[in-house]
Specification:
Blueprint lengths: L13 H8 L20 H10 L5 H4 L1 H5 L26 H7 L8 E11 L10 E12 L8 E11 L5 E12 L20 H13 L18 E7 L4 H11 L7 H10 L23 H6 L9 H16 L4 E9 L9 E13 L2 E11 L5 E10 L29
Antiparallel strand pairs: 1-4, 1-6, 2-3, 3-4, 5-7, 6-9, 7-8, 8-9
Helix pairs in contact: 2-7
């Protein structure tokens, strides 16, 4: 499609897209200032897991974890979202110019999906390194949800202190021009549902029925295509729930006072638009500030895409048991979860395929809102223990280590 020339209002422009493309393959680093967890501490892992409602004892109970195959606490698969320090890389003059060449400032940006490949667990005490860079930038035609958009793909390559590849994570983000209030999130309802005592009792009963497989092995020989996974319920979603998520997953944009001032000196001004009384607040506040969310075209505050992805993985880790490993996630965020909504997560086994000599189980997972409408989907692949072959391992890492050709070298 033909894109407009630059204007003074936040718009998708040809030069903005080209500037974003010039950043592909150039590290966009996490420092001690911007990362949440440099080391996978016991507290950090527990805070992350509890932040999205996951009390699997493998993540937080030292005695339980010590008796598992892992010998100690390990992190939930998507803990990597809040971890990692980047190495210093050697940039050419051209790469320095490209990294600071601008892009699409002032646009709303929404998490659209993930493709994650896992190659090793994260143990308590691991020090996580990450190389983070744009993988692709795609122009998208107008849609009923956003209008004209651009999709950027950001890759994060995670390693541990032994330089072992832990995961390669590609995340899709939609960059969208502002729209009138309530026109983006068609699946939200302008009139908030008020829950009755009976409805809340039904939600509590669903929570009471949720179980974690834990130390009891789920052998691959006992699993069949079509098996249903026990469901999960999340909600009604509140601003307090999102505070809990941010306590665990962290966001450096929320640093206060002098630290926020320093962030504003480092970051483009559009990351901290002024609020109704003139103070700077981060763009992130659309998740909890009703008026600002409406200014982005939404009917109200909404959830975090990474939190919803963690919910879908939790469904599978609850089911699979301590001995199994998650090896791949592919998810899509279809619509927003608004404050006040209840989300039900369900899944089933859709395939069992040989992968490197091991039967790999593929589960289809769906998040649905209170009205039963799908708001996210995922396929999650796991390796379960086998009665005949023992404990599963992770796949071998790719030869390229997840990096693109001609990326900047790491400084000595």
């Amino acid at each position: 499609m033909t894109l407009p020339e630059s204007t003074t209002t936040p718009r998708i422009t040809a030069e903005g897209v080209e500037a974003l493309r010039r950043k592909i393959g150039i590290d966009w680093p996490y420092s001690r200032w911007s990362t949440w967890n440099e080391e996978a501490s016991r507290d950090g892992i527990r805070h992350y897991a509890f932040g999205f409602g996951d009390d699997n004892p493998l993540w937080w109970d030292p005695e339980h974890a010590a008796s598992s195959r892992w010998g100690g606490i390990v992190a939930p698969p998507l803990y990597l979202e809040c971890a990692g320090i980047s190495p210093r890389v050697v940039l050419s003059d051209e790469q320095r110019r490209d990294r600071s060449s601008g892009g699409l400032p002032g646009l709303s940006m929404f998490w659209a999906g993930d493709r994650v490949r896992f190659f090793a667990p994260v143990h308590e005490g691991d020090r996580i390194g990450v190389r983070r860079f744009y993988m692709d930038v795609k122009e998208k035609a107008s849609s009923g949800t956003f209008g004209a958009t651009v999709m950027s793909v950001r890759r994060r390559v995670y390693t541990n202190q032994a330089h072992r590849l832990v995961a390669v994570w590609d995340a899709d983000f939609v960059h969208a021009e502002p729209k009138p209030a309530g026109t983006v999130d068609g699946k939200q309802r302008a009139e908030q549902h008020v829950y009755t005592d009976d409805e809340l009792a039904a939600i509590d009963a669903a929570y009471d029925a949720e179980t974690v497989r834990g130390a009891e092995p789920r052998h691959v020989e006992s699993v069949r295509v079509g098996d249903e996974l026990p469901g999960l319920v999340k909600g009604p979603l509140t601003v307090s729930d999102m505070i809990a998520w941010l306590q665990g997953a962290g966001r450096y944009e929320l640093y206060p006072y002098r630290l926020q001032y320093r962030n504003r000196r480092r970051a483009p001004a559009f990351l901290y638009p002024r609020n109704s009384f003139g103070a700077h607040e981060p763009m992130l506040r659309g998740h909890y500030d009703s008026a600002f969310a409406r200014s982005l075209g939404l009917s109200g505050p909404y959830d975090f895409g990474a939190m919803r992805a963690a919910w879908m993985v939790q469904l599978v880790t609850d089911w699979m048991g301590d001995d199994a490993v998650v090896v791949q996630l592919h998810d899509r965020m279809l619509h927003f979860t608004g404050v006040g909504d209840v989300v039900t997560i369900r899944g089933s086994v859709i395939a069992i395929r040989d992968a490197d000599g091991w039967p790999q189980v593929e589960c289809a997972v769906t998040c649905a809102n209170r009205l039963g409408e799908p708001i996210a989907t995922a396929t999650i692949q796991v390796r379960l223990p086998s009665r005949s072959n023992g404990l599963p391992g992770y796949p071998a890492p790719p030869d390229d280590g997840g990096l693109l050709p001609n990326m900047p070298p790491v400084a000595e």
